[in-house]
Specification:
392 residues; mainly alpha; 69% helix
Length: 392
């Protein structure tokens, strides 16, 4: 049993190290700086941070939140992010594998058996990639009101890979851990057609056949990011016209989904298609892609209809990619549910901002992230409610 405690401490400290890296991501990524070079330095005096002053959690406490050279204050955010990430890594390991607060189907007498022997590490990898990345994305969104798309793409890629190999690693008994795995022929067809349409839309965007919405001077945004005022409205865009460009971008996705559904239901292909999607890699990959499309669709629809209704840009494209990434990990049903839970997390904060700071727009990424986290934690309880009251 001692080795279990040693492993738990390792997981906690590894989480702190990940949190230290997230601090680098939070500062550098939105400013388009390299994440690996140059080494970390004090932003006030530019003195490189010595290795013994860069120990997660302990260094900030020992230095009392000040640079050892120029005595400039070091934001408590660095310590908070490291501590939060460490608690999440250790806490979720306890939650899933030690106390088994969520049904996993993983077989093993001890937590490490369920983690290593039964393949639980794959599920943990997907979930912790999602949680850690969304923590960093939320910190960036709260500070700068943007969500770097690279972070969303990274989570999406991990979700696609993990879902594709899930059945080979965890076995069929524990596939409930990957709700993105898909075996419904119609949904699979819609997903495949939608992805083909999305690829065509991206080609059209790249070649100029489809015009991008809200064209901005990206270099200027990057140069002025530290001095920018969040949501500073300094453009003369017709918001309804701009969002109609996005509707044109989405149109091939809808058409592709419709055509694929009709083709796969043809008598000559129906049985072959049903057999094809039962292949482990195919069902996992299409399921993850279905979650990605669902996550993007529910936010993008809200963005489009909200903008058309109020002639004011509603939600950001970063939120679209954020929920797409979440869907690639947790599946279509759960990402849609998370989207409708998010307002309950944001309403009190929004009221406070509206009353005391006169800010009508809010960074919605943190509340979407909290809703996704809540769905992951309360998965079994929510599923029981859906089954008992709604039959699914």
């Amino acid at each position: 049993m001692a080795v279990e405690w040693i492993w738990l401490v390792f997981v906690f400290m590894f989480g702190a190290c990940v949190g230290s890296f997230l601090n680098v991501v939070i500062y550098r990524l939105p400013r388009e700086k390299s994440l690996v070079y140059p080494p970390s330095a004090c932003p006030s005096c530019n003195t490189p941070i010595r290795f013994y002053n860069n120990i997660p959690l302990f260094s900030w406490l020992i230095l009392r939140g000040k640079c050892p050279d120029c005595k400039a204050p070091i934001s408590c955010r660095y310590f908070f992010v490291e501590l939060t990430t460490a608690i999440l890594f250790g806490g979720l390991y306890l939650f899933f594998f030690w106390y088994q607060c969520r049904q996993t189907g993983l077989v093993g007498s001890f937590p490490m058996d369920r983690f290593f022997g039964a393949g639980g590490w794959l599920f943990y990898l997907a979930v912790m990639t999602l949680v850690a990345t969304f923590l960093a994305a939320s910190a960036i969104d709260m500070e700068l009101f943007i969500i770097p798309l690279e972070m969303c793409w990274f989570v999406t890629l991990i979700g696609l890979i993990c879902a594709s190999v899930a059945e080979f690693v965890v076995g069929s008994e524990a596939l409930s851990l990957f709700p993105s795995v898909l075996t419904a022929p119609k949904m699979a067809a819609i997903t495949l057609g939608g992805m083909i349409g999305l690829i065509l839309s991206l080609i059209g965007l790249k070649t100029g056949l489809i015009k991008p919405s809200y064209e901005m001077d990206e270099q200027k945004e990057t140069d002025d990011i530290d001095n920018a005022t969040p949501f500073e409205d300094d453009h003369d865009y017709n918001d309804r016209l701009e969002v109609l460009k996005e509707t044109i971008f989405i149109l091939p996705v809808v058409v592709g989904a419709f055509i694929a559904l009709q083709v796969t239901q043809m008598s000559a292909l129906e049985d072959k298609w049903a057999s094809f999607i039962k292949l482990p890699v195919v069902s996992g990959l299409l399921g993850s892609l279905a979650g990605y499309l669902a996550g993007c669709a529910v936010v993008w629809a809200t963005r489009i209809f909200g903008t058309l209704a109020f002639n004011k840009e509603a939600m950001g494209l970063g939120d679209v990619h954020l929920m797409g990434a979440a869907g690639a990990v947790i599946g279509a049903k759960w990402v849609v549910l998370a989207f409708f839970l998010a307002p309950f997390f944001g309403i009190l904060w929004a009221l406070y901002q509206a009353i005391f700071k006169k800010m009508r727009q809010i960074p919605y990424g943190p509340f979407l992230s909290l809703a996704v986290f809540a769905v992951i934690i309360f998965h079994d309880w929510i599923q029981d409610i859906l089954t008992n009251f709604y039959g699914f």
